[in-house]
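pls ignore typos typing on phone
zinc ion + seq
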Amino acid sequence: MQKITAQSARTKLREYFLNNIGRIMDTKELRAAAGGISEWARRIRELRTEEGYRILTHHDRSDLKPGQYVLMDPKPAPAFERAISKETRALVLDRNGFTCQMCGAAAGEPHPYDPTRKTRLHIGHIIDKSQGGTDDPGNLRAICSVCNEGASNITLERPSSQKLLAQIHRATGSDQLAVLQWLMKKFPSQAHNFLEKT
Ligand SMILES: [Zn+2]
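k done
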């Protein structure tokens, strides 16, 4: 019998995922695709962490069950993102409040434009490399996978307070209260001071 090496199992799995873009696959199928080796799950992890393939699981999408995997985007995350240190990544995410800087989706919460997906944040450039941007932490920001794939089709412009208030005026009372709650949690001392004065 031909011996399946870790490297060849990984190659098999990579090809299998790329030939089945968008199709949800379970452990049984993927184990077989890897040549029946016991460490197939570890090879999938390597495809994610070392090669940057965005293979989604139930941690990323609420419609997936544990043990189900799907690759939606054949393009792996760029090398620069994989090369970013844990410290830089944490710094950028913290600075951006664990929120996508394009659409405002919060990490781990259902995505506002695709509620079946949990928001997963990537690190992207503020000024694109093609326009002279660097990999310096000052030029990095948090971007969700939906915006990263260009799926949400939202302009880069930050909404002004005027536009935001206009949107809030139109919202239902319960949504307005949700905004109030979020703002009070974010700015507890300011909310307190404001209430003292009025
Ligand atoms: Zn986004």
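The chain has a mean pLDDT of 87. The pocket of zinc ion is lined by residues 100, 102-103, 105, 144, 146-147, 152 (CB under 6 Å). more later
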